[in-house]
Amino acid sequence: MVKRFKPSVRLTENDVTDEAIYQDRRRYLKAMGFVGASSLLAGKANAIDWFSDDDESSFKGKPLDFSVNENYRISETKTPYEKVTTYNNFFEFGTGKEDPAEYADEFNTEPWTLTVDGMVEKPFTLDHAQLLNKFELEERIYRLRCVEAWSMVIPWIGFELSALLKEAAPLSSAKYVALQTIERPEQMRGQRSRFVGGGIDYPYVEGLRLDEAMHPLALMTVGLYGKTLPPQNGAPIRLAVPWKYGFKSIKSIVRITLTDKMPPTTWNRLAPQEYGFYANVNPQVDHPRWSQASERRITRGGLFSQERIATQLFNGYSEVASLYKNMDLTRFF
Ligand SMILES: Nc1nc2c(c(=O)[nH]1)N[C@H]1C(S)=C(S)[C@@H](COP(=O)(O)O)O[C@H]1N2
Ligand SMILES: [Mo]
Q1: What average pLDDT does range 201-209 have in this prediction?
Q2: Is there a domain that residue 8 lies in?
Q3: Confidence of residue 223 (pLDDT cuts 50, 70, 90)
Q4: Which ligand 1 atom is nearest residue 91's CA?
Q5: Is the CB of residue 250 below 6 angstroms from any atom belonging to ligand 1?
Q6: 93: Cβ below 6 Å to ligand 1?
Q7: Could you tell me the residue range of the domain that residue 64 belongs to?
Q8: Ligand with smallest separation from the Cα of 204
Q9: What's the Rg (C-alpha) of the chain?
Q10: Which pLDDT tens digit goes with each residue over 146-203?
Q11: pLDDT tens for residues 89-114?
Q12: 181 close to ligand 1 (CB < 6 Angstrom)
């Protein structure tokens, strides 16, 4: 039998979140005039089970039909299912890492539609079933590097964003794609309150240059660990762009619009000096208030046994380098 133990003292959010991020969040809340930011110190007991051992029978969701893409089978230790699904950023449900898993049961992803429109010849809308059935699904194991300097290794299931965009036949004048998360305040507590939702103006929006969006690495993701996505991970469909900081991998997408103008993006709008449009993972370009040279890799074991590893340019996906060959990545961060 596997020996387990639980920490006798429950961790607070302040213990779990990197200090810089914690201060960052307080600073925004203060700047926006929320009083009593010190009350954040009294975060609730943390629900993350850092010591769990994965048991496949506990994986939630509907099993998917997919093939394994061997090109993306990396040998790094995968992040356990339990952590992938309980340590999340999804501010629509709250700013705490454990909030999405706790509050996303209120989120009903049926019915769902995803529309692709804008500068295209053939705009279209897919329903929930079509999102899972229209394209051949494959499993790819990707690294996910959050701008907060932690990272995971996740087996996603999905299809290339380029396949979706090609269906719409983009016009040659289209230069960017704008992506948008659902707006459903009655099911998303963070959209009902600026305090709970971290001061973000919802809906959450993201964007890519069209050539980035057409890169084979950009994956529309409908599942993880063999099953449909849990709501806290962005059900029923989210983006995975593994060479960029995690905030570019927008969740629960309802609309993708092709445009000729660089679209606004949520974190850039909130703090333009700290979060750029490109947000390519880059150990040489520090966040103004913390280093990006290394990251905390979340695998097995507790919070304090996690390994600190060197961050790689483009998160190790050097095949994207040609997209940026004549760009100063310090200026276009
Ligand atoms: N709509 C939406 N998408 C989002 C976020 C969010 O708050 N809202 N957080 C982003 C951030 S900061 C990260 S690190 C990843 C986290 O994905 P995960 O919870 O599946 O690991 O989702 C990204 N996508
Ligand atoms: Mo993130």
Answers
A1: 98
A2: no
A3: very high
A4: 7
A5: yes
A6: no
A7: 13-324
A8: 1
A9: 19
A10: 999 999 999 999 999 999 999 999 999 999 999 999 999 999 999 999 999 999 999 9
A11: 999 999 999 999 999 989 999 999 99
A12: yes
- Ligand 1 centre from 29 Cα, in Å? 19
Beta bridge partners of 113: 127
Does residue 253 contact residue 181 with C-beta atoms inside 8 Å?
Answer: yes
Residue nearest to atom 4 of ligand 1 (CA): 250
The answer to whether 305 is annotated as binding is no
Residue 125 included in any domain: yes
The number of the ligand 1 atom at minimal distance from the alpha carbon of 146 is: 14
109 annotated to a ligand binding site: no
Q: Is the pTM of this model over 0.85?
A: yes
8 Å CB contact between 231 and 108? no
CA 88 to ligand 2 center in whole angstroms: 8
Has residue 277 been placed in a domain?
yes
Using the predicted structure, report yes or no on whether residue 115 has a pLDDT greater than 80: yes
Distance between CA 141 and CA 104 in Å, rounded?
24
| Closest to 46 (Cα-Cα) out of 103, 102, 105 | 102
CATH number at residue 315: 3.90.420.10
* Residue 50 · residue 216 · CB < 8 Å: no
Among 46, 143, 21, 56, residue whose Cα is nearest residue 101: 46
Q: In total, how many domains does the chain have? A: 1
5 found inside a domain = no
Q: Is 235 in the pocket of ligand 1 (CB under 6 A)?
A: no
pLDDT value at residue 2 = 41
- For residue 282 and ligand 1, the question of a CB distance below 6 A is answered with no
Q: What is the pLDDT of residue 236?
A: 98
